[in-house]
Every structure is written in C-alpha cells, then in structure tokens.
Amino acid sequence: MNLASVMLGMIGPWQIVLIVAAVLLLFGGRKIPELMRGLGGGVKEFKNAIKEDEDTDTKASSSDKK
User: Fold this and answer.
1) What is the DSSP letter of 2?
2) In a 10 Å sphere around its CB, with 0-12 CB exposed, 13-18 middle and 19+ buried, how is residue 14 labelled?
3) Is a pLDDT exceeding 70 seen at residue 63?
4) How many domains does the chain have?
5) pTM here?
C-alpha cells in the first residue's frame, strides 16, 4: 500500500466539502478557473518533457546498438 491510497481512504466526503469551501473562500470563484488552467498547462508541459526525455533515451539506446 502506498501513501496516496492510505490518504484517500482516510478522506471522507465531508472533508472534501470542507476543503472545497476553504478554497472557494480563499481564492474566490473567479480565480479558480485561472488557477486550474495554469495547473493544467503545467501538467501538460511536464508530460511533454517526460515524453521528449523518453524519446531521446530511446534514440540514444538505438544508436548505441548500431
């Protein structure tokens, strides 16, 4: 068992509601979509960087075999 599965098992629906309410109070309804867009863009860049790194590793290992 990893930490994420243990933590998800400990968080109930009322805790999630409380977290969402706190985020709404802190950031407001207008700022949240902008934050999510930024988060999504960061995740997209991260995935692209990993993919590019895997591609360069694959190319390097295939050129080593020749």
Assistant:
1) -
2) exposed
3) no
4) 1
5) 0.51
Task: List CB contacts of 23: < 8 A, sequence separation 6 or more.
Answer: 32
Residue-range definition of the domain harbouring residue 10: 3-65
pLDDT given at position 55: 81
Q: Which carries the bigger pLDDT value, residue 19 or residue 4?
A: 19
Q: Return the residue matching tokens 């988060």.
A: 39
27 token code pair:
């950031």
Would you state the torsion angle of the CA atoms of residues 23, 27, 31, 37, taken in this order, to the nearest 10 degrees?
-50
Q: Calculate mean pLDDT across residues 55-60.
A: 76
Angle at 24 between CA 5 and CA 6, to 5 degrees: 10
